[in-house]
Every structure is written in C-alpha cells, then in structure tokens.
Structure to design on (437 residues):
C-alpha cells in the first residue's frame, strides 16, 4: 500500500476531548472516528490492527477446542425475563421495540442466548464438554463512555461459553480458557496478570480478570512481582499440567482494589516484591455453574438418565479495547511501537523525496515490489514532505521496522531501522529474513 492512497486522515492537532495517549493517538493517526458519544467507526488503519488481534484470539480459542459460531446482536427480551436479568441489568441495556411492539434489546453479553441455543440442541452428557464462542459487537449504554475505544458503548468482544456435566469437569474447561487467555496476550506482546475478581452482574463463584499494566488503567492493582517469573511454555496442554498452571498463578498474590487488604498484602508478599500500580482489564472469565441453566431449564441427562442442569462458564475478551490497551502499554517517549504480531504493516519504506531526482522513489518502489512478492505487508510513504516530518509521523503510526532510502542507502546496502533503536546497514535479503522470522 502507498501511503498517499491509504485512507488515513492524519492530523497534527491533539484532539481536546482525548485525555489519554491511546485515544489521542488513535484519533491523530486516523485509526478511528467518533460517530457519537462512545460509538466509533473503525478506519482502515485501526481496523487492520483490530482484525489482527481478533485473529490471534480466534487461533487460541480454536487451539483449546472452542468452536466458533455467530449469534445476532439483537436479542429478544423473553430469554432475559426467564433468567431474571431483564430487570437487573438496568440502564446499561439498550432496549428497543420492533414494529409489532415486541421487546428486543441490543445484546450486552450472551449468556441467555447461548443457553437458549444449547437447551434446544443438546440433551445428553455424551455430547459434553462443549465450548462455543463468537466474536461480535456488544452494546452497553455506559454512563460515562471515555478513553476512546477503552470504554465505549458499542464494542467488539469475544465471548465464549462452556458446558459441562459436573463442577469438576467445568473447572477443566475454566483452566483451558485460563491458559488460552495467557497465550493470547503473550502473542500480542502483553504481560497480562490473572487476578481473582468479584463476579459482578454475571454472577457465580469463581472468576479472574486479566489485567495488563498501564498507568492510565482504571483498576488499581496490588501484586507480587514474582507473577512475571512464571513461564507459560513450561506447561503442557493436558489436564494435570493446566491444573498446576492455574495453581501456580493463583498462589501468587495479585488482586484489584475491590479485594485488597493491606494486612494480607504485607503477610503474603515480601516488601521488595510488592508492586502497586494501575492496569487495564482486557479479559474476564467466570464460572457460574447453573446460574442460567437452572432458571432457563437447560437440562441434560446424566449417566443414569437423571436430568440435571448443565454447568456453565463464560469468558470474555475485549477485542476492540485491546487496540487502545496495547497502545497504553507500548507508547513510550513520544514513540508508539506496535508489537510485530499486530502491527498494521510489517515494514514501512521511507524514501527521501526529491522532485528533481526520482532515484530514491524508484528504488523504494523496486524494494516495495520485492517485499510484496514475499508476502510482506509493506507500506511505502510516497508523501512529499521532509524526512523529519516523516519520522515524527511514523513515530506515531508505530510500524516497528523502517527501510530508509536516503544518503545512507547505497546500491544494495540499505538503511534499516527498528523503532527505538539505532539504524543499521543491511542487504535486502537480510532485511527480508528479519521481517519473515
Ligand atoms: P468493566 O469492569 O471494564 O466494565 P466488565 O467486567 O463489565 O468490564 P465483561 O462483561 O467481563 O466486562 O466483558 C469482557 C471484556 O469486554 C472486558 O474484560 C473488557 O475487556 C471488555 N469491555 C467491557 N466493557 C467494555 C466497554 N464498555 N468498552 C470496551 N470494552 C469493554
Ligand atoms: Mg462493565
């Protein structure tokens, strides 16, 4: 893609309404455009990043055997009356009527809908366990939408639901999901801490929030630094190993302010390991047993032919929030550097443009074609402006690698730079191999 052709309305001004870096940067680099309070359009650059995140989430859900499906955004109020949440959910739920006057709503979450799908399809324990998920827009009429895509009304979420015969089996599903979440965030270059959490309106007795560290986060967190020493690669994908993994994580102190008690913090965490900081919740998992299956009559036959309520858990990841959260976690010294796995482009070519001499731009186009052939997603900045402005702009767009075509690039030896490091002179073959691995 040539930058001059890309629909990316970059602005130099810092939008006044944006209070935190990710919101400012997403507006400045034309990743999103607000359409009304808490509702955004995703423009090509932002959409690309979100799709990459979505794909990592999808791959890691599929890896643990979860199956993708798609439920509608608009739901009937009937099922929410069955579970008793129609009243409880309050004003965050956007309620609508269709032309027949039927009560409908824009789904804030899908426990009821998936329970309804499940109860009409599965009757026997023999079909269990099952984990189903979808990646779909949600709507919550947040009282104070803020921080851009971090807390908005309409947002993109992956939500998964597990179905098991017994509590014990359900905890195995929970552990798989716990593992999948940590792998997902690792692949995005994020260090996520699982924290014991309150279960809130979803209800239930076992719940973890996955929080990434960022000064601008809404949650205050208290944790033992040793949580970062655990290496996920040490665990295999089997029941015993996953159980050990969850124990290892949950044995290390990490809580949000809702659960914080100073005495416990001092008792369980050595002074030098105490970490008090802020974080952003990017995922939340719950085990709530028969909270929905019981009132909604979602029954299955057990081994003795006895009817029992299926045991369920639900598991959310804020896919659109993660775009902003990743910026908060990676923006440093006026430079945004996307992790390679979710960067909008793999590399950008920056030719120094001279109207009287097309040598640099010709060379840039040649390299562009070469890289394209190797399936490298490359951006060519063909905009006619001076190099210092180009560098400033790309410090914000955040593509991690640059090929600079100016005085230092001679013949086949090219100036290659990774953001936040010194540039080096490399052959195109070396550059290709760096970009591919
Ligand atoms: P929060 O406490 O931040 O309101 P929640 O506990 O209500 O979140 P869940 O219902 O568990 O959130 O939703 C799963 C995930 O969806 C959250 O971990 C978060 O990443 C994301 N999410 C929730 N609400 C919003 C929102 N208003 N805007 C963007 N993302 C959201
Ligand atoms: Mg909420």
């Amino acid at each position: 893609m040539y930058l001059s052709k890309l629909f990316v309305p970059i602005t130099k001004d810092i939008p006044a309404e944006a209070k935190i870096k990710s919101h400012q940067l997403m507006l400045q680099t034309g990743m999103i455009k607000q359409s009304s309070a808490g509702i955004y359009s995703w423009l090509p650059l932002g959409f690309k990043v979100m799709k990459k995140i979505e794909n990592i989430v999808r791959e890691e859900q599929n890896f643990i055997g979860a199956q993708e499906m798609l439920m509608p955004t608009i739901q009937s109020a009937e099922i929410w009356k069955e579970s008793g949440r129609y009243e409880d959910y309050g004003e965050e739920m956007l309620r609508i009527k269709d032309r027949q006057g039927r009560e409908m709503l824009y789904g804030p979450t899908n426990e009821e809908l998936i329970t309804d799908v499940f109860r009409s399809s599965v009757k026997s324990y023999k079909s269990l366990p099952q984990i189903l998920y979808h990646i779909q827009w949600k709507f919550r009429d947040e009282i104070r939408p803020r921080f851009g895509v971090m807390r908005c009304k309409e947002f993109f979420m992956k939500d998964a639901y597990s179905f098991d015969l017994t509590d014990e089996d359900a905890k195995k599903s929970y552990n798989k999901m716990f593992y999948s979440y940590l792998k997902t965030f690792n692949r995005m270059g994020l260090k996520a801490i699982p924290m014991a959490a309150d279960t809130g309106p979803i209800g239930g007795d076992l719940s973890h929030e996955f929080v990434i560290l960022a000064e601008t986060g809404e949650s205050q967190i208290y944790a033992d630094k040793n949580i970062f020493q655990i290496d996920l690669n040490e665990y295999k994908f089997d029941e015993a190993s996953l159980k050990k993994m969850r124990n290892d994580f949950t044995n290390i102190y990490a809580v949000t302010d809702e659960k914080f008690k100073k005495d416990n913090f001092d008792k369980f965490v050595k002074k030098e390991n105490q970490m008090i900081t802020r974080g952003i919740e990017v995922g939340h998992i719950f085990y709530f047993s028969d909270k929905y299956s019981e009132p909604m009559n979602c029954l299955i036959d057990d081994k003795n032919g006895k009817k029992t309520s299926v045991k369920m858990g639900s598991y959310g990841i804020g896919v659109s929030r993660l775009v902003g959260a990743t910026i908060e976690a990676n923006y440093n010294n006026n430079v945004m550097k996307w992790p390679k796995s979710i960067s909008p482009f793999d590399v950008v070519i920056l030719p120094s443009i001279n109207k009287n001499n097309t040598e640099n731009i010709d060379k840039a186009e040649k390299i562009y074609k070469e890289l394209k052939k190797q399936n490298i997603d490359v951006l060519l900045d063909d905009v006619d402006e001076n190099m210092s402005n180009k560098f400033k702009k790309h410090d914000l767009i955040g593509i991690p690698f640059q090929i600079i075509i100016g005085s230092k690039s001679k013949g086949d030896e090219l100036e290659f730079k990774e953001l936040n490091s010194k540039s080096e002179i490399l052959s195109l073959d070396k550059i290709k191999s760096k970009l591919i691995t």
Summary: The mean pLDDT is 95. The first helix runs from residue 21 to 28. The two ends are 21 Å apart (CA to CA).
